[in-house]
Each structure stands twice: as structure tokens, then as C-alpha cells.
Amino acid sequence: MTRTRSLQKSLIIAMVAFLLAFGVTQSWGTNRGMPPAATHNDANAAEVANCMTCHSTRGAVSKIQQLTQDGRNLRPAWSPDGQKVAFQSNRTGNDDIWVASLDSGKEVQLTKDAASDRRPNWSPDGAWIAFDSDRSGNRDIWIIKSDGTGLKQLTTTPNEELFASWSPDGQKIAYFSYGSGTNELWVINVDGQNSRPVVPKLATEQARQCSFACHQPSWNQTGEKLAFQSEQTGNRNIWVVNLDGTGLVDLNTGPDEDYFPTWTPDGRIVFMTERIGADKVWNDVRVINADGSQGVTLFTEVAHGGPFYWSPDGNRIALHSQRGGAKFDIFVATLGKAPGEQPAPAVEQAATAAPTLAAAVAEKAPVAPQSAGAQWPAWLIPVAVLAAFVAFLVLGVIGFFIWRAVTR
């Protein structure tokens, strides 16, 4: 009897262990499926879509702050602490780099050259601002301290170099370089040394326009990868490459045009896709893995074409917009309803659902997708469990008789 109970106990333990192991393995291997795409009527879609169009379908009000008044103002860039925005403005007759404080509204002119200074980008420590300028005769990458001192030229080639983007460690700057009929992605150290191509010959002269006119390259959080847009295959797609130039991946999501890649904290990429509808052009906001797998549409029918710039905390968006006027100004939209505010005209409204970019991504695509693999059909799982149980039972009985024979 004791031996029989011992055998039963061993079989139960073995079976429980197997079922636990199977359950864990099955959970890891099960595809949880794609979250459904939001539509322009969805409350969460309105959060991003309407803060960029400044129009709400729900009537909720979010704080919209206009930072600039004079001249044409473009390309806002957040300071790392989220308290200031750098931008380019032609209010003095040519484009210069300015900085505006969100608290006081005070605007400070950093560059005062007769040349055209454009597309500012803050260093991670907030001490420096990179920009491109034609003050040396052709467009090069320059840096200046955020107090307006310490101006320094980094690139000195005869090529056009622009769209500077600081690495997370503050030691390197990525940028686009155009020369000899091709567009290329380069990286240079902040001391002006060791400039090198990451991806040569991205596009021809005819196909280079958006790489220059749309957005700077985007670093992932570790500084090991860059995301950028390119037309090198004939269609404007988002690409990812390792810093050493290896692992180039085309995140081709279809025939639409893709813009403005931004990395999420978990290593995915948010970007905008242009769709041509029956009566107008719409933009969708999508998220995708850095290897091109498991693309998810977060929001559809976003009326603003970008570029837009998320604040470091993800709670605000800076953008340049004409907002009913002839000239561009810089605006900051704070996501979420401001307490006590009353409904305003549609042009001043924004929606309230997902408070941050991270929350929006987590809500629509909550689990970082795992690598695809063969999945068992649903009907096969109970059959496999039953077969395993029978196998364990048979093996247990055989083992029992062997044990009896050996111990006699």
C-alpha cells in the first residue's frame, strides 16, 4: 500500500509539473493578436489627431499655447527638461535660432548671422543646440551653447549637411549629407572628429527632397540604432540601421508614404503614414517593431501632416502651424483636459483620452510582440494534453512493474 501511494504521489507530481511547464510554454508561444486600429471617431485617436489639428470631436479642451507671434517660425525642438522650445524664425529678415520659455513666454535670439540657420536640436544635457547653417558658403552642421555662446562649426565638406540629431549620450550627432547626386546618413563626434557614413547613397537627387524637408534621423534609447525616412526604393519608407551601418532594415508597411519616425521607450518606432483618400489626404499614426514585424495602427485620419515633436515627458506636443493664418507659428498642445477650462472654438480644441505617447502605444499595442513561430491549432492543444497524460500513465505503470520486479 505504501508503495502504491508513493507511486500515485510521484505520478501526480510529474503530471502537475508537466501541465505547469506546458502552460508556460503555450503562453509564450501564443500569438495574442493585433490590437484593432483606432478610427477618427475613437476617443483615443482624437487625443493625438486633434491635438495636432487642434480640433476636437468631443468638445473637451486642452491647453494650447502659442509661443511665437512675429515672422515665420518653424521646427520646434524641446529642451531636455521640457521647459523651453528652440525653433527657427525669419522675423529679423533671415532664419535664426531662437529659444522660447514655456513658463514666461520670453523669446531669446541665439544666432544673429546674416546666413540662414535652421532646424535646431538640443543636446541631452541641455547645454548645447545643434543646427544647420549656410554661413560658411554651403550648409553645414554647427553647435552653439544654449546661452548663445561657444559657436562651433562641425562639418566642413563641400556637401550640404543638415538635420542634426544628438545621440542619447551627447557624444555624437547624426545628420543627412547631400553631395555628388546622392543623399547619405552620416555621424560625427561632437568635437568635429571622426565623421563617417552610416548609410551611403540613400537616394538620388530627384528623390532626396523629403529626407531633407521632413525630419531628422531618430536615435533609439541606447544610441545603437537610427531610424530615418528614405526614398531609396522609390517609396518613402521608414528604415532602421545599426550605428556601424550594419543591419539595415526597410520597415515597409505598404504602398503609403511614411514620415517622422520616433522611438518608444520599449524600442519600437512610432511614425506617420500618408494615405490618399477619396476627397483628401489623411495621415495615420502607426507603431512597429524595429525589425519590421507586428505593425499596429494606433490612430487613423489624423489631419495634421507633421512634423510634430513630443515633449520629453510625453505629455505635450510642439508643432508649427498656420492655424488659420498666412504665416507659421510655434504651438504647444498639452494633452488632456485642463481643469476648469470651458469649451473654445474648434480651432482651439483638443481631445483628452490617452495622456501621453507612451500611454497611447501601451493602450493600442500593450505587449511588445515576440518573434513569430509556428503555432499549434486550437483543437490540437486538448488532444496533446490527453496524449501526454496517457503517456505519463503508461510510463508510470511500466515503471511500477519494473520497480516491483527489481525489488523482489
Compute the gyration radius: what is it? 28 Å
The helix content, as a percent range, equals 10-25%
Uncertain runs: 1-61, 337-355, 367-378
Q: Report the average pLDDT across residues.
A: 73
The percentage of residues in β strands lies in 25-35%
Describe the model.
The structure is a single chain. The protein is an alpha+beta fold and 408 residues long. The protein has two domains: 43-364, Neuraminidase (6 Propeller); 380-408. The chain has helices at residues 2-29, 43-53, 209-213, 357-364, 380-407, and strands at 62-66, 73-78, 84-89, 96-101, 107-109, 117-122, 128-133, 140-145, 152-153, 160-166, 172-179, 182-189, 196-204, 218-219, 225-230, 237-242, 249-250, 257-263, 269-276, 281-288, 296-302, 308-310, 316-321, 329-337. β18 and β19 (269-276) form a beta hairpin. α1 (2-29) runs antiparallel to α5 (380-407). The longest helix is centred in the N-terminal third of the chain and has 28 residues, at 2-29. The radius of gyration is 28 Å and the shape is elongated. It starts with a helix and ends with a helix.
Topology:
Layout: H1 2-29, H2 43-53, E1 62-66, E2 73-78, E3 84-89, E4 96-101, E5 107-109, E6 117-122, E7 128-133, E8 140-145, E9 152-153, E10 160-166, E11 172-179, E12 182-189, E13 196-204, H3 209-213, E14 218-219, E15 225-230, E16 237-242, E17 249-250, E18 257-263, E19 269-276, E20 281-288, E21 296-302, E22 308-310, E23 316-321, E24 329-337, H4 357-364, H5 380-407
Antiparallel strand pairs: 1-24, 2-3, 3-4, 4-5, 6-7, 7-8, 8-9, 10-11, 11-12, 12-13, 14-15, 15-16, 16-17, 18-19, 19-20, 20-21, 22-23, 23-24
